[in-house]
């Protein structure tokens, strides 16, 4: 049986385009020290380290995991580097969870930092993640790929650019309440609709920024939690799934969907719900990975937070607003800060803050159960995690 696992310490830095006063290992150290301090732990108390890191091309240093070993005080300890694109942060937390749940380690540090501002135009690098021959006629990048999905969602469900703009307005409004967010200014519906077109229907204000910063989480076995904190956040459920590499195979008779949705995300979320012993109706708050406003439209439905085809009406009614029935991305989400390697980890951190009533100005009232998701690898890797204020009914005396 798996051991129950709790988040007993967490930290994130302010996210911004560029840090002029520190290098990547120092950012890692900054977040790690703060997270350990929350749990009243020292680096010597940690059994293993999991590091969330972007591809070397984005960092600018080959085999960059070597660069942070000393900053993470991992000398003499196991260190695992994880990368699944935009899903990296939550995938790293998944690995840390499995380290502890298996009984192999008692305390694990999950860390990550991002300096995407140093890599020039990140899109130029991300344009190289597709097959150079078979699908070469499609000018794919991480924006056009999702623009095509948005068009298909429009055709299938009748959504419009106005619906996308409502997502942007909501998230940017929430971001003004988050002290760590990169973008902290509100925008109006008209400003979003009139902003520069990037790739139809995605406009500039429908898109996330390129952010730098760091995050860290300390995980502990359930029976040890009282040593470290009186407000743990429990990892109740975890689910992961992947989609095909080939864009052309995401549509057609053999595909899981017609590309309007992300069926692999639905699979991951449902697995997390099943492990947690809950349903979508039990979720109080969600931090959904959505770097563009169009992604949130399908992500909400993939997570089962409303019926298929109803998300646009719910958005218009304020159902997913901070004061709504199920607040989605009360932190401002990825649209207000996207430090790629740790973005998924931040989603879990924000859920943990919510269920422990520590989210400050963007706190959701009476939030006891949160859903965090991440997406990476050209909308190919999907991870979902249910985080709660209580360990769950199946947890008794350290046994799940």
Description:
This protein is an alpha/beta fold. 30% of the residues lie in helices and 18% in strands. It has twelve helices and eleven strands. The chain has helices at residues 24-38, 56-59, 65-68, 88-101, 122-126, 144-157, 161-175, 189-194, 263-276, 293-302, 311-316, 343-355, and strands spanning 5-12, 48-52, 79-82, 107-115, 197-199, 202-203, 212-221, 233-242, 285-287, 369-376, 381-388. The strands form two sheets. The chain has a nine-stranded mixed sheet with strand order 3-2-4-7-1-8-11-10-9, with helices on both faces. A two-stranded antiparallel ribbon has the order 5-6. α4 packs across α12 and α7 packs across α10. The radius of gyration is 20 Å and the shape is globular. The protein starts with a strand and ends in a 12-residue tail after the last strand.
Short description:
With 400 residues, this protein is α/β, with parallel strands linked by helices. Helices cover 30% and strands 18% of the residues. The N and C termini lie close together (6 Å).
Strand order of the largest sheet: 3-2-4-7-1-8-11-10-9
Q: Which structural class best describes the helix and strand composition?
A: alpha/beta
Quick check: average pLDDT? 92
Number of helices: 12
Write the layout of secondary structure elements.
Blueprint: E1 5-12, H1 24-38, E2 48-52, H2 56-59, H3 65-68, E3 79-82, H4 88-101, E4 107-115, H5 122-126, H6 144-157, H7 161-175, H8 189-194, E5 197-199, E6 202-203, E7 212-221, E8 233-242, H9 263-276, E9 285-287, H10 293-302, H11 311-316, H12 343-355, E10 369-376, E11 381-388
Parallel strand pairs: 2-3, 2-4, 9-10
Antiparallel strand pairs: 1-7, 1-8, 4-7, 5-6, 8-11, 10-11
Helix pairs in contact: 4-12, 7-10
């Amino acid at each position: 049986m798996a051991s129950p696992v709790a988040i007993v310490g967490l930290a994130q830095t302010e996210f911004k385009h560029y840090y002029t006063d520190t290098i990547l290992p120092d950012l890692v150290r900054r977040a790690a020290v703060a997270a350990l301090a929350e749990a009243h732990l020292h680096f010597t108390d940690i059994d293993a380290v999991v590091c969330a890191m972007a591809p070397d091309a984005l960092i600018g240093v080959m085999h960059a995991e070597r660069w942070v070993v000393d900053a993470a005080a991992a000398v003499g300890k196991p260190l695992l580097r994880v990368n699944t694109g935009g899903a990296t942060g939550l995938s790293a937390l998944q690995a840390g969870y499995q380290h502890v749940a298996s009984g192999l380690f008692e305390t694990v540090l999950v860390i990550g930092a991002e300096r995407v501002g140093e890599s020039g135009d990140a899109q130029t690098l991300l344009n190289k993640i597709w097959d150079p021959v078979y699908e070469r006629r499609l000018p794919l990048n991480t924006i056009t790929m999702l623009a095509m999905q948005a068009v298909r969602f429009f055709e299938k469900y009748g959504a419009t650019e106005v619906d996308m703009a409502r997502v942007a307005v909501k998230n940017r409004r929430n971001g003004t309440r988050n002290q760590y967010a990169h973008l902290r200014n509100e925008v109006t519906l008209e400003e979003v609709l009139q902003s520069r077109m990037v790739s139809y229907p995605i406009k500039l204000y429908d898109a996330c920024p390129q952010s730098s910063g760091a995050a860290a989480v300390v995980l502990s076995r359930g029976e040890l939690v009282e040593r470290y904190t009186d407000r743990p956040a429990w990892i109740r459920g975890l689910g992961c799934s992947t989609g095909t590499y080939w864009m052309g195979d995401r549509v057609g008779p053999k595909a899981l969907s017609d590309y309007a949705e992300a069926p692999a995300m639905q699979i991951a979320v449902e697995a997390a719900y099943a492990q947690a012993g809950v349903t979508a109706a039990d979720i109080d708050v969600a931090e959904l990975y959505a770097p563009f406003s169009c992604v949130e439209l399908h992500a909400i439905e993939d997570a089962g937070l409303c019926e298929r085809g109803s998300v646009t009406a719910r958005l218009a009614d304020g159902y997913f607003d901070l004061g709504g029935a199920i607040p989605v991305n009360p932190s401002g989400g990825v649209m207000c800060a996207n430090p790629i390697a740790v973005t998924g980890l931040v989603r879990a951190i924000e859920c943990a803050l919510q269920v422990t009533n520590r989210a400050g100005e963007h706190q959701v009232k009476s939030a006891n159960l949160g859903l965090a998701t991440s997406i990476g690898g050209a909308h190919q890797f999907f991870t979902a995690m249910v985080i709660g204020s209580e360990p769950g009914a199946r947890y008794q005396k350290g046994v799940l």
